[in-house]
Design goal:
By secondary structure, the chain is an alpha/beta fold. The protein is 44% helix and 22% strand. A 5-stranded parallel β-sheet has the order 2-1-4-3-5. 30% of the residues are buried.
Length: 159
């Protein structure tokens, strides 16, 4: 399986990079992983609705340009479906079974994802009703993908 994580913004925090690198190393036994970072759109702290829409659209264009046309797209969105680790594993296993070998997870910037990206998504996934920093979500997502492969293979994992 080829899995891409397409995300807005460059990861700067060393501790998050170390955690992601550790899980990417572990995941190499299960799948080809690729993290694609697109630049975030510079914007002032206070934005009007129109300005926020423009920022999300520009970031969305960058994201869409990186999505493989054959990919099954899973957008991380607060209004997405919440799943257990086992349900995520089952969904990924079904994708592989039915020939969807390319999966792209998408993490938006601090303002979220554009409508265009959400329309391209085959499904929306939520980790919580809470808001998390999008940089932290990269680590959480990579860990959950690793956990999913452990579950699929019947290998031990922490419950």
């Amino acid at each position: 399986m080829n899995i891409s994580i397409i995300t807005v913004g460059k990861l700067k925090e060393k501790y998050l990079k170390q955690g992601i690198d550790e899980y990417l190393k572990r995941l190499s036994a299960y799948a080809k992983m690729d993290i694609i970072e697109v630049p975030d759109e510079k914007a002032p702290e206070e934005l009007s609705e129109l300005e926020m829409l423009k920022v999300k659209q520009k970031e969305g264009e960058r994201i869409l340009a990186k999505i493989n046309p054959d990919a099954h797209v899973i957008a991380l969105a607060i209004d997405g479906k919440m799943k257990s680790s086992e349900e995520l594993a089952d969904g990924m296993d079904k994708l592989a079974t039915y020939g969807k070998s390319k999966v792209a997870f998408v993490i938006g910037g601090s303002l979220g994802l554009s409508e265009e990206v959400l329309k391209r998504a085959d499904e929306k996934l939520s980790f919580s009703k809470m808001t998390f920093p999008h940089q932290l979500m990269k680590l959480v997502l990579v860990e959950q993908i690793y956990r999913a492969f452990r579950i699929i293979r019947g290998e031990p994992y922490h419950k």
